[in-house]
Amino acid sequence: MTALAPVADIASLVDAALREDLGGDLTPGSDITTQWTVEADTPARARILARRRGVIAGIDVACSVFNRVDADLVLLRRAADGDLAEAGDTVLEIRGSAASILTAERTALNFLQQLSGVATLTRAYVDAIVGTQARITDTRKTVPGLRDLQKQAVRSGGGVSHRQGLFDAVLIKENHVTAAGGVTEAVRRARLGAQGAHRGSTRIMCEAEDLEQVRALVAGGPPLAPDRILLDNMSPALMRQCVELARQAAPAVELEATGNIDLTTVRAAAETGVDVISVGALTHSAPALDLSLLFDR
Fold first, then answer.
1. Catalytic residue at 209?
2. For residue 132, which of 278, 282, 277 has the smallest C-alpha distance?
3. Averaged over 162-189, what is the pLDDT?
4. Which residue, 37, 172, 212, 264, is most buried by CB atoms nearer than 10 A?
5. pLDDT at position 83, please?
6. pTM over 0.85
7. Is the dihedral of CA 82, 88, 94, 99 positive or negative?
8. Is 21 a catalytic residue?
9. Domains within the chain, CATH numbers bracketed
């Protein structure tokens, strides 16, 4: 089961999204289309349907939207996060006030479609590397404000989560290396910084652009080597050389393939022997899963 974002965080996201749609007023009466066309006491039963095959994610936040608009709505979950829905499958049933369902519909679908899209794309990458030792992970390239939910969606799709943010792990990238004066100096400073902050267990990761940087990073052994080396924008052939070198010199160091990896190249990256493959597109470019809400006649 995937870890869930704190309830307070979901509530604040839902409130912000509804205010955006309702003009700052969270009362259903702010939905003038529904207010002027639908009798307030009209009952309804509706279903959210998958229009195409995909992995579901975001059920909790979608339900939170409906409950925030009208606590009396009855919600019947027909799918859970991580479930594979076929075209035509019912994901969620909603019963109660037609006006309330209509007011909540788009905001609930916006969350559910976007997060299910992330989970579906993640599953495609996970399926593409079946049989290898590699895992698919996300990055910090998330929609602002939706990071927790998007990372949950990645896990629902079978991926794993990279560091949460700038606060919980060190990731030394090209510009850090340039500013610090080299990869080994950057790692050395990070180790000293972690010790000085009494955070010696903080993971330290460092990008490498070529074989020489990998060689430099593993030359000092476990005390000086980073916990993970990111093999950045490398060809499969070069990546394989780096993996062989690192496995011999520092077998405990994790190896990650990163940079411009897509569904056409991810298998080749996985077959080099890396432990992890990071894909920014999981969260910044996943197409929304086609879902619709329809009233039963």
1. yes
2. 277
3. 95
4. 172
5. 98
6. yes
7. positive
8. no
9. 7-126+286-295 (3.90.1170.20), 128-284 (3.20.20.70)
